[in-house]
Description:
By secondary structure, the chain is mainly beta. 5% of the residues lie in helices and 54% in strands.
Amino acid sequence: MAATVNNVAVGTAYTSVGCNRTPHALDWGNNNLVCFAASRAVAVYDPKFAGNHGKILHTLYEHQDRVNCVRWIQDGEFSPEMEILSGSADRTVIVWAYGGTSGGVGCQRVSKLIGLDASINSVDGFYWKYNQNIATVVVAVGGDQICVWLRDGQNDEWRILQKFITKPVLMFDCVVNLLLDYKIPLIACAGDDGSVQLLNFQMLDGELSCVRTMKIPGHEDWVRALAFTVEDSGDLLLASAAQDTLIRVWRISPESSKDKSDGDKLALQSNQGQFSIIYENELKFRCQLETVLQGHENWVYGLHWQPSELKDGCRKNPLRLLSCSMDKTMTIWGADPSSGIWFDQVRVGEIGGNTLGLYGCRFGNQGTSILAHGYQGALHLWHDVEGQWKPGVVCSGHFDSVEDFIWDPSGDFAITVSVDQTSRLHAPWIQESNEEITWHELSRPQIHGYDLSCITSLGRFRFASGAEEKVIRVFEAPHNFLENFARICHIDVPLPELQNAPQGAAVPALGLSNKPIYQTDGPMVPKNAHSKSDLYAENHFTPTLLMAPPTEETLLQNTLWPEVQKLYGHGYELFSLAADPQCKLLVSASKAQKAEHASIIVWDIADWSLIGKLEAHALTVSQMAFSPDGQKLVSVSRDRNWAVHKKVQTDDGKFTLKTVAKGSGGSRILWSCHWSPDSRYFLTGSRDKRVIVWEPVAGDTLSYRISGKPLECADSVTAVACGPNILPTGCYLVAIGLDNGQIQLYNWIPAPSDSIPQWELLANLNQSQAHHMTVKRLRFRPVNGNDSGKETLQLASCGADNTFKIFNLAF
């Protein structure tokens, strides 16, 4: 989606975000689009974009807390869906309308449904023909409550049809479908007492209501997932999955005269129950246990029936059930045509590793693809290729706040660091047969045991990172990554980069450091556990040949970068890092509540020696930035002051830094700073909602003053960045990130006049286009990107909403 102001078009080239770590947070519609919960937003993902490359098309923001569940509203005819439901911890359900436009996907909020007094665990919706109109039934569960809403097709107004209190039973999932021959909605809700509650619509004296029908016992632990499907015979099949590792399939069908004669006997033998529905006439049904599926070794969290297939002009239900579990596997169950016995037809997943399991699963592409999401926010996609199930390329991203990122000096890739304790490398996937360029995660250089907080580039294929620890860690790219990177991105890697580089890296048992691996004879096979220490298996590296972006399992195990250096010197957790463009000096700062701990340490990258300390601040240094010419460093702090440090040469020929200017930047914390491309001005952004440009005092290059009038913003300024080049008009392009997630682009004019203001707004990205939580960092790509064959300026951002984005700017 593009935002245009003053003839500046801003389009989203790349969005990277992980799925929320909640069950029912993902759905794959018949319109071939995937929607999933991403922090407080809903992400719309097209897995078929650019020939199965995939791309997140849009993020929808309205909720004020984490989105727990999403669902496309179904019509029972398997038509392309047009509306999305999202339920959140803010106790609301939002209905979103989706429609294709010339610019791609258009989504907007239709309604907000209120009625539950607890965080919403699951939501489902169905279109229903009622009073000669198409009504919409929505059901949601949260805590010990069930709420049913109805939208009349005549006036499009929502009303609460019924609300149920299930105390002391907590509800975890809900589904709705129609009793096929009677077109009456039936609702099923899963509880923590091991039972499934059925609700049905009732019509008495012209009044529509929703009533409890019956409770289906059977499971021995919390029921976590439900799924409805309609058999070709017209019977309704309900699948339920629980933490007892079992899946039960129930058949709901009209009661015949034979069933009435020996109903008591059948009820005892087959766990069968009868219930009645009064809708114009009294209708009687039976609920009978069809089968019990056993095969998972841990809690089963997700279920989904394969949609009906269109064959010879009519729809046939293949009766295949997909399930996923915390045992890291997805299983497709089906019945034998001759015997009717159910068995597992397909089983895919992950073996070993240190990750937790899967939270939800969905069929797609008419049953030829399956998709699941896991505890660490990753998506797992598999395609049926001529009878063989093979993993596919899918989007990925962080599942916690993205704190910082860097661009490679050549602009070929970006690396992000997050509170989820990982660093991730993002780069474009380029194919000669495909004009569309899509970005993907190609490597996970660091998987740490501490929350990562800062990162800086130390040259091509080398970076330093800091975390909630006192150690700076330096990483270099291994040989296996460089080969795959050159192949996927069509970029020539210089021979010196490949020589003497280790093949890969691995993490020792109970360790935090990525150890280099030089072994290339074959995969390392773990030995059998003979002692207690051997039970903690190492993360073993296997060289891989990649022609496409790697899967989650490969990212976790085979794309680590070896750690080449550790730097000790801080007494508290690292907070900010910076390095000069010439890669001669590295500066670091840690959290501090006293001036003695707020020192900036200067490191010589050549021999990693500590060559100086800059004592210019009294509290935590929030950000540091070197000027493009590498001669000056600006630092800003929580003490509301800024400082400029100049590069000087010592007696032994080494370079270090010396503080040459200090000043107050405002009345609140200074969060961000950046230099102009000509190294003349620097900018500061603070919590007092102001962006200030500082210029050297005439005749005194070591003193700075405010240049012109500060820019007043609508919220706290948490990130600022200046464009890589001065515009042809002599203006400077400035990007500003706010605490509320918005991003603004301005022209800053050094010498304004009465007719030309100093600050000119070029574009304003709202919380759906940019971020819906704090913008943590903004950086322009050092080189122009490519958008549909045209070179374009690109801006990247990361935020507390777990998202990393790259924008195309067209002037």
